[in-house]
Amino acid sequence: MKKIFFTVLGLLIINTVTAQNSQEQSDSLMLRKIYDMSLMQGKSYDWLDHLSNKIGGRLSGSYQAQQAVEYTKAELESLGLNKVWLQPVMVPKWTRGSKEFAYVETSPGTTRTVNITALGGSVATPAGGTKAQVIEVQGIEDLEHYGREQIEGKIVFFNRPMRPDLISTFEAYGGCVDQRYSGAAEAGKYGAAGVIVRSMNLRMDDYPHTGSMIYGSTPVSERIPAAAISTNDAAYLSGILKMNKDLQFYFKQNSEQHEDVQSYNVIGEITGSEYPEEIMVVGGHLDSWDIGDGAHDDGAGVVQSMEVLRLFKEIGYKPKRTLRVVLFMNEENGLRGGNKYAEVAKSKNEKHIFALESDAGGFTPRGFSFDADKAQFAQIQSWKELFKPYLIHYFELGGSGADVGPLKQGDVVLAGLRPDSQRYFDHHHAANDTFEHVNKRELELGAATMASLVYLVDNYGIKRINTDVEEKM
Questions:
Q1: Is the pLDDT score of 311 beyond 50?
Q2: The pLDDT value given to residue 178
Q3: Looking at residue 3, what is its pLDDT?
Q4: Which of 331, 332, 357, 444 is catalytic?
Q5: DSSP state letters, 185-228
Q6: Residue environment code for 305-322, b if the CB has 16+ CB neighbours within 10 A, otherwise e
Q7: Where is it localised (predicted)?
Q8: What distance lies between CA 49 and its chain's CA centroid?
């Protein structure tokens, strides 16, 4: 009897292992098909060419943003999806005006021009510009040390650099971006005449990097102008200040905040063949800053997300679950698109199980970060071996993406594509975030990597959160 039992048990184990091996082989072949299609017959690079070179920078509320809405909607319709639609969303409209100008005056009549750009959301300088002495600080926390007595009437120069010793450039960015985001609001409390911020850039160059900033509760009449200065010119200004604390800094900018205007999220859908009520999302943000053409941030994420659906159509794969591409509007200076999409999804009681965002540039993909519980992450990690032939090794718990973040509730798993980040901040929010700095093959590898993860989520689903398992782990 024992012999029969162990024989049957052995056969069951063999059959189970065989079935597992067969499924792994099937998954491996599917990933190979996805990568082949993206690398050999990809469309993402052509789409990005049009967004970057035919439309250009797509600041929310601008004519170019509306052109991008119309273009991507038409391209999604051409793919033969089940549904394509526009989701209205009110967005802020801020305009830069004529090009900014700045110089350092070391003595009367002796000046040197420097490269600046207005921060997104900043007020303009007075018509004749702003000119004052400069006080250099290393961060917002330094303001209290100097106090109103030393700051009032001066231009505050925030010069804390991104840390070059941090391998994660996003960690380095997070360590100093507060001076850009709220520096003007905080310096204004001490009577500052304006704010100049060292660009969020690890490289020494002449490109100033813009980005969003807020005034918070500061009354309109008390808001001071804020601009970013290039890293080379930040180094120059800091150096010359050590020799001449009485120098004058002049800058002029013509930016203006307008009333909100209507724009749209662009959405396309392949309806699920078995579980249409379970929704998976891939997306990026369609808006960009205006001084470059937004190729890396986030044109790359937009076209990669569109490509995921196109790849499935081309290889004949019919998702079991509903797959949506969402091209979010206004991530850069408001996150209105991401919030609106989540708001509508909640009002319709839609069941999202997974959302993947690409918003870290079109560089070589390294893997993903996940916002998931430990049981869900263990399931996802079981797929990691399938990605190793493509040199995708990074599977970590962590953040996902700003636009998909508002979807976080219940069992939904959020993820972010993680390309190699070492060159990302060379271009982030700068005039050199342009099409020629995106490598076609790297872009296509990213699209295939996203499609591969979506395929696995679709094929196996997402584990429900198990509180007991979570507590034991």
A1: yes
A2: 97
A3: 62
A4: 331
A5: HHHHTTT-SEEEEE-S-SS-SS-----B---TT--GGG---EEE
A6: bbbbbbbbebeebebbbb
A7: Endoplasmic reticulum; Golgi apparatus; Lysosome; Secreted
A8: 19
Q: Comparing 3-17, 160-174, 254-268, 318-332, which segment has the lowest mean pLDDT?
A: 3-17
> Taking the C-alpha atoms of 208, 214, 219 and 222 in order, what is their torsion angle to the nearest 10 degrees?
-20
Give the list of residues 6+ apart from residue 346 with CB closer than 8 angstroms, or none. none
Could you tell me which residues are beta bridge partners of residue 102? 251
Arithmetic mean of pLDDT, 284-293? 98
CA distance 279 to 348: 13
Torsion of CA 237, 242, 248, 250, to 10 degrees: 10
Nearest-angstrom CA–CA distance, 92 and 86? 18
CA dihedral 107, 111, 112, 115 (to 10 degrees): 110
pLDDT tens per residue, range 222-247: 999 999 999 999 999 999 999 999 99
Find tokens 């184990």 and name the residue. 13
Closest C-alpha among 265, 266, 279 to residue 350:
279
For the record, the structure tokens of 9 come out as: 């048990």
pLDDT(90) > 60: yes
The pair phi, psi for residue 241, each rounded to 5°, is: -65, -30
Sign of the CA dihedral running 205, 206, 207, 212: positive
Q: In the annotation, is 357 catalytic?
A: no
Q: Kindly list the strands in the beta sheet with 394-397, ordered across the sheet, starting from the edge strand earlier in the chain.
A: 83-95, 256-270, 321-328, 275-285, 351-357, 413-419, 365-371, 394-397
Report how many helices (DSSP H) and strands (DSSP E) the chain contains, helices first. Answer: 14, 16
- Mark 401-438 as b/e (b = at least 16 C-beta within 10 Å): bbbbbbbeeeebbbbbbbbebebbbbbbbbbbbbbebb
Q: What is the pLDDT of residue 4?
A: 60
The 10s digit of each residue's pLDDT in 140-152 is: 999 999 999 999 9
Question: Looking up tokens 């017959």, which residue turns up?
Answer: 41
